[in-house]
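In the previous lecture we treated proteins in isolation. Real proteins rarely work alone, and many bind small molecules. This record shows how such a complex is specified: first the sequence, then the SMILES for flavin-adenine dinucleotide.
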Amino acid sequence: MKVFENYVMKQHSNMKVGGVAKKFIVVEDKNELKEIIENNENIFLLGNGTNTLIDDGNLDMTFVSTKNFNEIKEIERGVVEVGAGLDFNKLIAFMNKNNYTGLENLAGIPGSVGGLVYMNGGAYGSEIFDCISEIEIFDENHEIRRIKKEDINFSYRHTEIQQKNWIIISATFKFQDGFNLKKVIEIQALRESKQPLDLPNLGSTFKNPKGDFSARLISEAGLKGTMIGGAQISEKHPNFIVNRGNATFEDISNILKLVKKTIKEKYDIALEEEIIIVKGEQRR
Ligand SMILES: Cc1cc2nc3c(=O)[nH]c(=O)nc-3n(C[C@H](O)[C@H](O)[C@H](O)COP(=O)(O)OP(=O)(O)OC[C@H]3O[C@@H](n4cnc5c(N)ncnc54)[C@H](O)[C@@H]3O)c2cc1C
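The predicted 3D structure, ligand included, written as tokens:
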């Protein structure tokens, strides 16, 4: 493993906000996890940081990166084991090369495979669990084991991994033949036309409430374009918050509070964050 002390986290969140962490550890082998978990406190597992807002003070925390778990192993035709740290779009490229179908609707999501599995990420009617057959984890008893999909509780943007604090080591996918490149190109164009990809952001900020869309509610409430300090509710996609260059953790927290308060008062709907917020005192 590689261990860095007093490590600046800003570059590890796609919002480009983040303070100085006590430690940043890059795991190189899954057998190191036991030692890391048993000898550190206040641990946060980090993938690509595309869904994670990090506090910008001094963080008495250890961030653990699984980015080196990035192997793709084809066990047999249609069965592919993928390391949790792999950038999801590298998996899409592998599927293209090997003519596998099933996850095209997710193309362009900038997260790691582990980040997507953790929260059952998805887009345009598909989710990562559609194609998963099993996952390999480091569990709450500090054991490495494999669990089949049918034994995992998951739903819209939720998995039991979140409550159990499991560390995802790899995911095994079951794919059919027939990569749909046309679909990927269409989805990527849609993302570029609808999302403010030119500015730091964390994707959709709030989960969609039942039967509605957070973006619609925020827009209708007249909040589009609202700025607090360097943070802004995107004009292009009102469920995205963008960093206009010098946003602080407090600016973004204040925007979150404003949106939640306004939507509650206007529509009696309690919006819930989809993004993950890491405060200095966060614990596993
Ligand atoms: C422009 C943009 C568009 C986006 N579009 C979408 C979209 O369409 N659909 C969607 O679902 N999301 C979307 N997102 C959000 C984000 O990309 C996904 O949620 C992605 O799954 C996060 O992956 P990550 O590796 O960046 O996770 P991180 O932000 O690093 O971490 C997210 C959570 O996963 C946990 N985690 C990460 N790796 C592991 C691991 N190995 N073991 C255990 N826990 C782990 C972390 O502890 C954290 O709680 C978008 C984000 C951006 C910036």
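Summary for your notes: The mean pLDDT is 96. The domain at 198-278 is CATH 3.90.78.10 (Uridine Diphospho-n-acetylenolpyruvylglucosamine Reductase; domain 1).
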